[in-house]
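Bench notes, afternoon.
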Amino acid sequence: MIIDIYTLFPEFFQGPFTSSIIARAQKAQLVDIHIHNIRDAAIDRHKTCDDSPYGGGAGMVLKAEPVFETVEQFYTGGPIIFLAPQGKTFNQKIAEQLSNESRLSFICGHYEGVDERIIQHLATEVISLGDFVLTGGEPAVAVVADAVIRLIPGVLGNETSTADESHTSGLLEYPQYTRPAVFREWAVPAELLSGSHAEIFRWRRRQSLRNTLIRRPDMFTMWRQVNSPLTKEDTKILAELQNEGLIVPDGIL
């Protein structure tokens, strides 16, 4: 995959993309990341890329000209993504869809906002990380790119690594433990030390269902809608959780 990032601050990405898994993915030529400086397209000697908004108001607005010219200079296909609050909320399903693309482009907004023509006539997709505000588009782009890159075959090494992760299976992931078996009097659950694959699998499934019901009931409801009918084992586990006092939505069992 080739990823093009258009930004006013190329130096921001030195940290996120030059270490750990993303760095190894680039070294293995599984992903090729290009950072393009929007300021290079500015025509004045001060490299101005912002201006005051028409109609007045606080802050400055990212100009359309340098953004269009920079993108058009390098663009050869694929989605052009802009991160903004009005976009559809980013999730694992979108990450999976984007990971199937051969090329992605990201435009990083900045200042008070961007000229609306960038959103209407250049970006092909608008994505939001959630209902909060960042200092610029760079952190948001780094997050989305990371979520996408790790899904590219070969990046994590083990193709089954993402199968049981939260938001991939539709349920929150089960708790993880490692050595020592006892730390400060806190012991690893006996099921994980049993050596029985069936017992371990059931414990993990039970924890996934329990955690999702408690922490993300909205997510549990969505999972239930696409998993009908329930397996006998899931039905049994949910009945056990209900008997223990956990609230299971009406009509689930």
